[in-house]
Amino acid sequence: KKSFLIIGLGRFGINVARTLTKAGHSVLGVDNDEDIIQKFSFEIDNVMKLDATDSDVLDTLGVPEFEAVVISIGEKYIQNSILATLLVKEKGAKHIIAKAGTKVQGKVLEKVGADTVVFPEKDMGQRIGKALSSSTLIDYIELSKEVSIIELKVPQFMLGKNLIELNLRKKYAVTIISIKDKDGNIKTPPSVDYKFTEFDVLTLIGENEQLKKLHFIDF
Amino acid sequence: KKSFLIIGLGRFGINVARTLTKAGHSVLGVDNDEDIIQKFSFEIDNVMKLDATDSDVLDTLGVPEFEAVVISIGEKYIQNSILATLLVKEKGAKHIIAKAGTKVQGKVLEKVGADTVVFPEKDMGQRIGKALSSSTLIDYIELSKEVSIIELKVPQFMLGKNLIELNLRKKYAVTIISIKDKDGNIKTPPSVDYKFTEFDVLTLIGENEQLKKLHFIDF
Ligand SMILES: Nc1ncnc2c1ncn2[C@@H]1O[C@H](COP(=O)(O)OP(=O)(O)OP(=O)(O)O)[C@@H](O)[C@H]1O
Ligand SMILES: Nc1ncnc2c1ncn2[C@@H]1O[C@H](COP(=O)(O)OP(=O)(O)OP(=O)(O)O)[C@@H](O)[C@H]1O
What we know:
9 helices; binds adenosine-5'-triphosphate; elongated; 2 domains; 34% helix; homodimer
């Protein structure tokens, strides 16, 4: 059982807090908005109204004892987000995760001490943009700059064939991880003699260059 | 080349617009905030200041001609988000994606016509919460209620062994999709005689029940 400090209880922050609470960890959620504190006081075991840019107040929290500190103050209060990150870093936070809206804000947060910066709206915006851009792509997750996991509607050329005949792994180093049929049943790992059918949805992994060659993605 | 209508150019909306623009599609971005329109007028081919809750104005856009309409008005203007969705549905939008902050808002948006609802901050908050909750889990993506793809630090019991010896697929129906070594190089598919080493990061897929049995996840 670990303990976590969540600074800023917007949508992102409260969902980190809820998830950790559900997993049985101890959570201290802080926010300087009284209404927000009232709203979540029954849900999160410890909530406290405080201004996270107040160095003295932060001293009372025992920052180094938390497994991690999550700064989830949004762009509306960008200076608060930056100052709070700087302060908890100074006070010895073991691990800092900060939420940012723009790349620029993210760079500043890293400079002042954030170990990890997340971009919830930017990430989701890109995933949706990519899925909309292709008529077959459903979802797309970057594992690294070169490798992605994608979910897509079974391409025309695969219909009626099985993995042995298609030989995707040898030809393109693309691996089908799972197949979801039209009723939503997921088969993983897929069997090599299964013949692909219309309405199958595939989850597969491969290098972006190879995925482009196969027209699975176009970006 | 397709065309898309993005209503509301907050962080989520602008990133959908940018991603589609990069992929070569035609984008019309609308917002009723003049500053926002000015800010993005050079970046997105078509931007227009308008109130998306004004039915007559929406009539001038040719809503049914867009491949999809994305409603990315946030919780701050929740009634606008709901009314804009209702209106574009009435005007024959082919496909509507709407952003929501809470489950409740998401349900209402579905009722008034959204085909897909996304929760950027909630999703990311849960992913971060889950990664923080486990000392080995790095990332976690739900493919369905029963199946997840997870990224985790190589567990103790796998060190020095290879996939043939571990037999994870036969025993637990868990498939290792890729292995990232400490220099960030990704090997996919992993070779079956590779002996797992400290600092390896694994991406694997399996049923949540099995992942729990292996203590890969604890939720
Ligand atoms: N100095 C501060 N100390 C503590 N909490 C703060 C401070 N400044 C802002 N906050 C809180 O941070 C929370 C999140 O900020 P805001 O609502 O701007 O972010 P957001 O980007 O809309 O968040 P989300 O997208 O996660 O909903 C707010 O509840 C706000 O009260
Ligand atoms: N009736 C409307 N017509 C057009 N645009 C609108 C309307 N109401 C709100 N908007 C715009 O929607 C945009 C996004 O709304 P808001 O900033 O509340 O969302 P948000 O949740 O903070 O967004 P994000 O998290 O994506 O940054 C704003 O730029 C706002 O001007």
